[in-house]
Amino acid sequence: MSDYDEFEMATRAVRAGQQRTAEGEHSEAIFPTSSYVFASAAQAAARFSGDQPGNIYSRFTNPTVRTFEERLASMEGGERCVATSSGMAAILATCAGLLQAGDHIVSSRSIFGTTTVLFSTYLARFGIETTFVPLADSGSWEAAIRPKTRMLFLETPSNPLTEIADIKRLSALARSNNCVLVVDNCFCTPVLQQPLALGADIVIHSATKYLDGQGRCIGGAVVGDSELVGKEVYGFLRAAGPTMSPFNAWVFLKGLETLPLRMQAHCSSALTLAQWLEQQPAVVRVYQPGLASHPQHELASRQQTGFGGIVSFELQGGQQQAWTFIDALRIFSITANLGDAKSTVTHPATTTHGRLTPEQRADAGISDCLIRLAVGLEAVSDLQADLAAGLAALES
Ligand SMILES: *Cc1c(COP(=O)(O)O)cnc(C)c1O
Description:
This protein has 396 residues and is α/β, with parallel strands linked by helices. It has two domains: 9-255, 3-Layer(aba) Sandwich (Aspartate Aminotransferase, domain 2), CATH 3.40.640.10; 260-393, Aspartate Aminotransferase, domain 1.
């Protein structure tokens, strides 16, 4: 919580969390220091015992990291934020802080691939089992809950098919089953969706994506209340050490300042391109929550204040057509990252979802001719012309 909580999102994005030093610096300072000096032995003892607040050691307290944490907490409407070294570290810290052997997770099956590996390979080794369910089917969530279920986990919109989960509904299900609802808010960011206000207990971020916004640093964050996040997740961070560096925190702070403006531009260009793609004869189907044809357009309109920068679509044909299209693009970078000023293009079936069996891919709706765009900040007319050149290459 910060001094700016009563202000609008764009104001919090620029102002929240900053505490100037005696130097009066206007921009946030970077504190590259691993430890802090105490005025006396008694003060050292008081800091270590927790009787006196203050910095001890940068594995768990650093002023630049704290500024980032307070700004993001203010934007998500959470009491506390814990910054981590990556988005995956944020997910691990949440699970390790809140779960124990014997506990059970119900997770959307449409989540970031590495999260699936973390749950089904590594958490499983420590006696935490996960059941994966279809994101948009509330009945499957309910049916998968067991007496030992302690966590529901999801991303919405999903990647790459932009399915939407009803966060309010799942939060009621979590509450009545004594579970925490964890939402990975990477695709929307707090600018487009605030899961805590919809009843989620924890919000996860890969700061690597839109929060940075220019593809520079790896980082993550966990946001929630002072008990779950301030005590349990923070306790794990302090003991295990997947800490965000002050330099990265400073880059993310600068990213947050422009996040509301950038998200507006990502959303607007993505919708323009999605609508244009829908009219192209070589395009079979377009996935974007802002399209009236999206099966959950109404839910997305209620739950989000914008539809996001991801557009996926299917071409006629198979892998060869998809690769020909991708290789003909000049502007879109062929890379799996997203949330960058630079637009990116991915062929999910042979990259992000390449480790799945053909049956698993079919189950997840990832066809060989599916293409995912993460629309960046270039001129939308240039991006559209680039996509048109890609489609033209299919005809030659
Ligand atoms: C990238 C990503 C992650 C992992 O974040 P890293 O910063 O790469 O560790 C988690 N969830 C989603 C939705 C992501 O896109």
